Amino acid sequence: MSIDKITREHVLAAVDKIERENITLQPSAKFDVVINGKAYPPKEIMRYANLMANKTMDWPNSGGEPTNKYLEKFGFEIQPKEQDNAGNTTNRLTNTVIKLGCNWGKGAPSFYKMIRERKIAICADDLLYQPNDLILVTQGQTVFALARILKYPQPVTSNFELAADFNKYKIDYEEWVKYASAEWYELSKEERFSYNLQQGRCYVHLPEIKNRAIAIWNSRFTNKSIKTMNIHIGLCINTILYGPPGTGKTYNLNRYKEDFFTDKGITKSSDEVLRENVNAYPFWQILAAVMSTLNKPVSVSELLSNPVVKAKLNPEARAPRSTIWRILQSYADSNSTELNAKYKGSFELFQKDKDSRWGIMPNKNEVLADISQELMDIVVHPEQQPTQNVADKLRYHFITFHQKYSYEDFIEGIKPMLKNEEVEELSGDLQFELKKGIFYNSCLEALKLAGYESFEACHNDTPDNRIEKFEKARNNPAKQFALFIDEINRANISAVFGELITLLEEDKRTGVTNEDGKLTEMWIKLPYSHEMFSVPSNLYVIGTMNTADRSIALLDIALRRRFEFKALYPEYHEGAWWSSVLQTLNDAIYEKKRNADFFIGHAFFINKEESDKTNIFNNKIIPLLNEYFQNNAESVKHILNKSGIGIQQPGIKNNYQIVAE
After folding, report:
1. pLDDT at 112 over 90
2. 289 and 387 together in one domain
3. Same domain membership, residue 556 and residue 426
4. Cα-based distances in Å from 368 to 288, 350, 491
5. Are residues 438 and 546 in the same domain?
6. What are the tens digits of pLDDT across the range 24-79?
7. With 90 as the cut, is the pLDDT of residue 367 above it?
8. 397 lies in which domain range?
9. Residue 90 counted as domain residue
């Protein structure tokens, strides 16, 4: 193979192939090459150019200057991607603006509302969108919205959920019609403008129209009050950070907590910090984590004396022993409890021996996997909780979703409890209590920041007062509250949110008005408490999801329509010892998977010395590769070999496992 055979014509042929076949390309970290007015990742272009010239997609050069010089030699422009102050690549628009009319043929009904709610844009084979193209969404001759394309278009026939809507709006549901996910911005009455030169879908070439659209897009968060806090934080009010493992999702979550939702003060004791830290976890997880670390059956008295369990218990509780018993009985096997099945939890985890000591049932790894490493670290070293600021006011709650998480855990539910605190067996009278979940409590905290002590007080107030109070709250960074949801894709979203999913929408939030100043908020009656409930407009809901576990395309459609998605992919730090290693590794993974969702992130290498490389691969990366390739040893070896990582000869000393050397 000789890469010197590659010519400008091979590059143009590669671009033609990519466009004709709608090939998804691995995004570049720092540069784009502009060809025929569109931006492409340079290394991907050279891989396909090599395919045209040498019948192979292997490209030996690394990204950046070693690849860029070939394209510059052929007369193509290399553009550095814009970066923010932290060096992260921003979502810069291409120079392409396209008009999309919202009637699929003369006399067909407008599909504007449908694509707005689904956050998509429609196109066809004769004019395909590219990521970061800007779309003028028109009704008649008026531009009502702008949309930035997020991903390459897919055939509408690949999404059966679109079929009914397409039939309703008389849109062809055929292979040649495409749709692409998009970031939407709906224009206010003052921002709307006319474009009457062409009908249907077409490129916008008129400079004044293009410049006006781009200017509005770039300043889109400065006009509406509900966007004021978004620009303060840099996120939309409902946001999911997504990406492969090790790309900084949890890091960013912690940064948002610290920078935007914590009011600073003076020193707080480690015991107080411990209580705050364990409060985010369900009690069954804390008991399970304690049992796992002790690795032996324990009595209720021993559990009560554990510092982490004590921190979780309400200090004012009159029956702490009863609380422990209720949790154990709710998640116990049938031989360890007499509790009626309908009052038990959704899974069994604990078992009691003949000495009334408790432990974890065998073969419960799937349930135990829901317990985060952060909680395990707290249980192992409760005394090492760092002191914080006593006047720190944490304006957020945090939760990790798991497969068994339910509406009753999240919003509210009726839970069984024991009345007699002294019983050592299940002989107490069975009572029930209404327990509020973390989402309800987060909404209540946001409500209090806006000036209401309860949902009843807010609902009974006058509309004008609600509008005024929430307007002030939205414009005051100190009046924002957040609910952080880690691993949001692990739960059944439809079951967890229930009917409240609609209330998450910005225009359904408490105190929000339309362009005419009329309230568009929505209230519902909760099923258990019969309390009137609404989601405050000063509450952020920020989640994370690991794309290696589940693709965005598989997420519940109702969730996708109501959340903005912010991608976090690996960063390659110039000059870092690990940068070329990580690039080569991800190139090899992409060659096998053809999907960037399975990349390895930079976080595994940050602040590590080169001498740690073998440990990083053995303890972090190889286990992930085994998971990615279902323990297919040949595939994992291929990835490591392509990455230049040496492998020990399999044998009894390494238990015949793949071990880096």
Report:
1. yes
2. yes
3. yes
4. 8, 11, 15
5. yes
6. 677 776 788 888 767 788 998 998 998 888 888 888 888 788 888 888 888 887 87
7. no
8. 222-264+392-568
9. no
Beta pairing class for 31-35 and 524-525:
unpaired
Question: Are 368 and 288 contacting, i.e. CB atoms less than 8 angstroms apart?
Answer: yes
Residue 228 predicted with pLDDT over 70: no
Using CA atoms, how far apart are residues 21 and 18, in angstroms rounded to an integer?
A: 5
At how many degrees (to 10) do helices 42-54 and 8-20 cross? 110
The answer to the question of residue 88 being in a domain is: no
Q: Whose structure tokens read 């730090």?
A: 573
Same domain, 373 and 386: yes
pTM of the entire predicted model: 0.49
Q: What per-residue confidence (pLDDT) applies to 494?
A: 81
* 562 and 535 Cβ atoms separated by less than 8 Å: no
Containing 100, the helix (H) or strand (E) segment is: strand 97-101
- Give the integer Cα–Cα distance in Å for 8 and 35: 11
541 lies in the same domain as 637? no
- According to DSSP, the residues that pair with 240 across neighbouring strands are 543, 565
Q: What pLDDT is recorded for position 75?
A: 82
Element (H, E) at 397: strand 396-400
422 occurs within a structural domain: yes
Residue in the block written with tokens 């000869």: 649
pLDDT bin (cut points 50, 70, 90) of residue 633 is confident
> Which residue has tokens 């929505």?
522
Per-residue pLDDT tens over the stretch 534-550? 999 999 999 988 877 66
Q: In which band, very low, low, confident or very high, does the pLDDT at 224 lie, cut at 50, 70 and 90?
A: very low
Report how far residue 557's alpha carbon sits from residue 447's, in angstroms, rounded to the nearest whole number: 28
In a domain, 89, yes or no: no
Q: Answer yes or no: do 378 and 413 share one domain.
A: no
